Amino acid sequence: MGRYSLLSLLLFAAVATAVISDQATDSDDLLIRQVVDDDDLLNAEHHFTKFKTKFGKTYDTEEEHNHRFAVFKSNLRRAKRHAKLDPSAVHGVTKFSDLTPREFRRQFLGLKRRLRLPADAHKAPILPTNNLPEDFDWRDKGAVTGVKDQALFDDQGACGSCWSFSATGALEGAHFLATGKLESLSEQQLVDCDHVCDPEEYGACDAGCNGGLMNNAFEYILQSGGVQREKDYPYTGRDGKCHFDKSKVVASVSNFSVVSLDTDQIAANLVHNGPLAVAINAVYMQTYIGGVSCPYICGKHQDHGVLLVGYGADEYAPIRLKKKPFWIIKNSWGENWGENGYYKICRVRNICGVESEVSTVAAISTSSN
Residue 304 catalytic? Predict the structure, then answer.
């Protein structure tokens, strides 16, 4: 058994090295080595310099610079731990490598705990699953807008508005199915105007950059009459005064439903109803670079809202010497994170709670200026 485990690890190391070699024109560009070899921590200052250049990082004072360097070194060790716990994915330096886990959660997540479902939420009907395609991706069918960035304006500070991007992404897909038109919808309208609350829990309301819930957002859209285009109500990445113009509504919610905690039902709803709003535990996403994330250990407490756009039948995972199915997740951290802004995660065992809170939304066509 020990010999087999050693063989598996050697095989994984060889394959991972080959993959990195194929992907990188400059071995320093992806900044992977420091999470594989402890000796590379001796070169942490060099890697930190490369990190600052690649992601345009600057710090106001020497004290702040030194603090961020210490955090960066800590995150190198953390990424190495993630690589061991999640060996079928690649973990390393990302644009979040100068943030503590607490800062990362506060600034780039923002999903609130679900206390109850909004009044207009339904349970999705059970769909047939016998003829589902082996692979499916709404990007190939024109139902998904480009990857957006909830922290686009870094000089203004980060915004925990992930929930709004998940909600608009689902409605963008539903609107495409209803009208044949792909429209980029306004997250900022939800940040500014959606304050739907749980009447049974004081203070449990959608709160812009301080977090919210996708189902609450669908409830707000249903009540308010719709959402404007992003270009008519552009994203600022900060809380602001609501200036919703109902005359410029381009997409509206007809109804929304919660999907059963069942992998096949989630796949069926994805195929038949369009991209789905989902919640996930993002603990491994701070260091994620690529591959299929399938960690041995991951909590099911969700803290991040994302968009499920497709799935794959299998992708090779060398550490386990087998192929595995996966979900395709659209994130809201820009194209310079993950696989061009996307995340792949195992389609088994409700990994990281990705199958626990899944919602589908239906759209109606509305007139617009």
Answer: yes
